[in-house]
Amino acid sequence: MATIYHDYLKKIHSTYMTSDATEASYYPLLKELLESLGKKLGMVGGVTVQPKRTKAGIPDFLLKTKAGKIVGYVEAKDPMIENLINEAQSEQLLKYRSSLPNLILTNFLEFYLFRNGEIINEVRLANPVFLKLGKLPVPENIDKFNELIDQFFSFSVPETYTAKALATELAKRTRFLSSLILEELNEKTDIILGIYKAFKEELIESLTEESFADMYAQTISYGLFSARIQAREEEFSGSTAYKYIPPTIPLLRHLFYLLTGPNLPESL
Predict the structure, then answer these.
(1) For the segment 96-151, what is each residue's pLDDT rounded down to a tens digit?
(2) Would you say residue 115 lies in a domain?
(3) pTM exceeds cut of 0.90
(4) Which of 2, 84, 91, 256 is in Cβ range 3.0-4.6 Å of 223 for a Cys bridge?
(5) What is the CATH number of the domain that holds 124?
(6) Exposure of 138 in the CB half-sphere (CA atoms within 13 A)
(7) Tell me: the pLDDT tens digits for 39-98?
């Protein structure tokens, strides 16, 4: 895999030397690297670069298996950020770490792997000083970096949970989703804002944005959980999940369709 890393660093160097590169300028390079490594390991179906308008809500990269299951997330920072580990204590990263079990933080040269919020591996693929000096970075710690990548791609959600562990995991996802909904409200996203106003005007006059976000998040989280139990794996997706809400609870079924319909914001 050494050739892959040499090519990657050569492209990082070329982009940096344009002098007007932004953080997003490096995204295609990291996407290409992750896709190449994932294919070699046979563990990834695709790498999605998230829309920049949602950058405060979700990490920059989403990786999935060929079957559509989430492998993990990658949050990228500018290559010239020093003391990258300090970013792990920012409000944004603390939120990601508390909600996303498999996460990489990187500045395209240094990589920190978090598992359930804790660092389990860290590797510097190349020294940022090379870029500052205008020189081509030299790959280092290749074996350890391969180990980190293997750990990241081999992550899998447990097949079974105890009742307590399941409740904890659902609560984590619900809190994270609630924060995304609040951000969508702040962005004045039409579909979310429209639903909030309808609930406030027709049902609960005193409904705050925070309470609405919690209610919305709980409906999606526990609706998905209920639907997932009923559905066969190959037929299940977020857009069709409402079909699997038990007919014995028609109100939840209808509400879930309303809240997860085709116009649902991409960040959710």
Answers:
(1) 998 889 999 999 999 999 998 999 999 999 999 999 899 999 999 999 999 999 99
(2) yes
(3) no
(4) 256
(5) 3.90.1570
(6) 2
(7) 888 776 789 897 554 444 689 999 988 777 789 999 999 998 988 999 999 988 998 998
**120 and 6 part of one domain:** yes
Amino acid at 44: V
6/53 same-domain check: yes
- 85 falls within a domain: yes
The residue range of the domain holding 120 is 2-153
244 vs 263: CA distance, rounded Å: 19
Measuring CA to CA, which residue among 242, 239, 246, 256 is closest to residue 68?
239
- Indicate whether 264 pLDDT > 70: no
Is there a single domain that holds both residue 127 and residue 187?
no
